[in-house]
Design a protein that fits this description.
The chain contains 20 helices and ten strands. By secondary structure, it is of the alpha/beta class. The strands form two sheets. The chain has an eight-stranded mixed β-sheet with strand order 5-6-4-7-3-8-9-10, with helices on both faces. Helix 7 links the parallel strand 9 and strand 10. The radius of gyration is 40 Å and the shape is rod-shaped. The structure holds guanosine-5'-triphosphate (GTP) and magnesium ion. The site of guanosine-5'-triphosphate (GTP) has 24 residues, from helix 3 and strand 9.
Amino acid sequence: MFTRGKAGLTIRLSHVNAATGEGDVLIAAISGLRAAVADARLPLAVDGRDPAESARVELLRQLDDYVIPRLTSMEAPLLAVVGGSTGAGKSTLVNSIVGTEVSKPGVIRPTTTSPVLVHHPEDLHWFSDTRILPELARVTGAPTDDPTPGTVRLVQSRSLPAGMALLDAPDIDSVVAANRALAAQLLSAADLWLFVTTAARYADAVPWDLLRTASQRGTAIAIVLDRVAPESITEIRPHLAEMLREQGLATAPIFTIPETTLTPDGRLPAEAMARLKAWLDALAGDARARSVIVGQTLKGAVESLGGRVEELATASVDQADAAATLRRAATQAYAAANEGVQAGITDGTLLRGEVLARWQEFVGTGEFFRQVESTISRWRDRISSAVRGTPPPAESLGEALQSGVAALVRAHGESAAIETTRAWRRLPGGPGLLERDPGLAKASPEFDDQVSAMVRHWQGEVLEIVSTEGEGRRANARLAAYGVNGVGLFLMLVAFSHTAGLTGAEVGIAGGTSVLAQRVLEAIFGDQAVRTMARRAREKLLIHVDELFKEEHARYAAATAGLSVDENQVERLRRAAAEVTELLR
Ligand SMILES: Nc1nc2c(ncn2[C@@H]2O[C@H](COP(=O)(O)OP(=O)(O)OP(=O)(O)O)[C@@H](O)[C@H]2O)c(=O)[nH]1
Ligand SMILES: [Mg+2]
């Protein structure tokens, strides 16, 4: 359907739906592109996201409103959309061309809020269904003063030929945002823009932004310079022509309509719009000329797809990068938490404070330390009685260890959440995610309980290590004497006891603690076995901590993944665009 000729690319309109299937291939490729664009998500509020999202929506609309319907029905009438600033006289112009009041002109700005599409009665079927502008409901009948948002009014008129329709659009630079958006949508659905501006407004910025875009997309444009005082025509027209040239629109015809008194029924006198009318009549009477215009605009729109989709792909890359950076921040925070716990259980921290106090209670006074070497039986008795549960110290020591370990894990879990939040506040897209899920600012509500349960479970495992190691050994008898629970506590202490990090008197006492506990264990199991058991106890704890942190960490990964920023989005967009551009070669 696109062939390379002397004049570069031309569209052979008649072949689009021909049996060759050439057109169908392009339609299929563009439909694939549409799906990729529709599925694309830009959920993270990073720089440039908002314009990229607007461009995505606009692209999707143009595909639905224009490119796909036009490709699938090249024989549909040419749609000329009359656009421009409010009060430029668009509705007046449309009424004047048609010869009846099809659209209400007005003094209150903006007047036209929903579009009016004028067509020949024979062309009704082209516009009554949702082939183009599927989002707008069709209404018919005489124009009313009541606003009818979300509709397009269909008006039949025999003053237009079959094969050409005219649409009166709301203003493009409206104070009403919905009007503006609708006008832009309508213009991107046009085969031809009839751009109405006035002597007073022709240099305004908004229309030129739109004209520039249209120029880049190769849209067919004709300019109507309305309401020019006859004496300034010679000044304004060349200036406007120069501006058009600068924007690559040198070929756009300019129709000047001098300021006149309107006829009593509000229409432009015939002589004022004679040139425009003649041009439109010529177009209306010449199916080939119309198809050239349709072909030009369609070709421009199709050729613009590659670049526009690439912009969306680039914005998607930014999204993926931002999501990866956010995820990395969480990963780092939880890695630090794991390291923190690991350091905390080996640097002796756990043997401070409460644990130390309970240990002292457990083993009694300094006398105990002095006597222990020689009177092992005495202190064995002491421990066995403690383990049988009557005196509280063993339990208290177990609890102190439990809450010490739990506090350590909690502190690092909490600070990983806080650290991740702090990082996310500064990172692109992060604040939005935190707003959406305020729970991310802290550890999960279940975390506290999970930590307690995990530590209890681990203490059970330590007892298992002790009883497994004791099985079938001579040690078994001694183990029975001290009790598995008591020996388990000793093992926990040894697992946590390194003097690094302790200061002053604590070193002596904690050092003594571990030495004493270690001696007892070695007496039961032998020194090599004690080292292995202590390592296994530590490892098991660290594995459980890691599992818990993984769950905590997963919330942040889920927050970024839950946005459905699909990893393949970039590739899918680029592949779909490449399929279309391939066909244009
Ligand atoms: N004297 C004179 N008045 C005009 C001319 N064109 C439009 N008007 C008046 O200017 C006002 C605005 O004209 P409309 O046709 O409603 O303008 P519009 O561009 O459709 O405006 P919106 O629908 O708000 O975008 C109306 O009161 C018209 O009667 C003209 O060429 N000469
Ligand atoms: Mg109007």
